[in-house]
Design a protein that fits this description.
There is one protein chain. By secondary structure, this protein is α+β, with helices and mostly antiparallel strands. Strand 4 and strand 5 form a beta hairpin. Helix 3 packs across helix 4 and helix 9 crosses helix 10. It is rod-shaped, with a radius of gyration of 28 Å. Keywords: DNA-binding, Transcription, Transcription regulation.
């Protein structure tokens, strides 16, 4: 996402981060209203309502028509649809945290479940368990064939239940290691970005 697009998205959320503006949109969704009507419904002063409407007009979420000396406001449903289609997407919202280090949570999981190099327990949460399995998979080298005894020996360095961890590593869901005829090897994919040490 470009910096310009990021600022546009940030501005959108800032404008809508107000209870009264959201209520205004809700009221206008039922039909057009004058400033005086909106002020009465929200129990606000007319200048305050005008200020909120001006902010919503910046996003083109509301339109206005004049009838003599009275201004009537209405919800711009087309802009709302376009906003939903182009701005409020999972991709655009996730882009708000593009600069946040994605490894931070994984590092926290490793720190919580390891005491030094010893795995204190195997997480019951599948998502956390995957973090542990990724780290364990990184203890095996690419291009090396391991026997089951060698796999167990490596896993026992970190936790006594090597059989469970070995099964998890070769499970169809995760498939961090591959097995055939009693031989094991690291699956040929790019190495995980999981931190190299649980204590880091």
């Amino acid at each position: 996402m470009t910096q310009e697009a990021f600022q546009e998205l940030l501005h959108f959320f800032k404008v809508l981060a107000d209870e009264n503006r959201l209520k205004l949109l809700g009221i206008l969704a039922t039909g057009e209203r004058s400033v005086e009507e909106l002020a009465a419904l929200l129990q606000l002063r007319a200048p305050t309502v005008s200020h909120h409407l001006a902010r919503l007009k910046e996003l083109e979420l509301v339109g206005m028509r004049s009838d003599k000396n009275t201004h009537y406001y209405w919800l711009n449903t087309e802009t709302l649809r376009q906003t939903n289609r182009y701005i409020l997407t999972p991709e655009s919202v996730s882009a708000l945290v593009d600069d946040v280090n994605g490894d931070a949570w994984e590092r926290k999981v490793l720190k919580d479940f390891f005491d030094g190099m010893q795995l204190k327990e195997i997480p019951s949460s599948r998502k956390k368990r995957i973090v542990i399995l990724k780290w364990l998979a990184n203890q095996f080298d690419y291009g090396v064939i391991y026997t089951e005894a060698e796999v167990n020996a490596i896993l026992k360095r970190y936790h006594p239940d090597s059989a469970l961890l070995r099964r998890e590593l070769i499970s169809e869901k995760e498939n961090f290691l591959q097995r055939e005829n009693g031989q094991y090897w690291r699956r040929a994919v790019e190495e995980s970005s999981t931190p190299s040490s649980p204590s880091s």
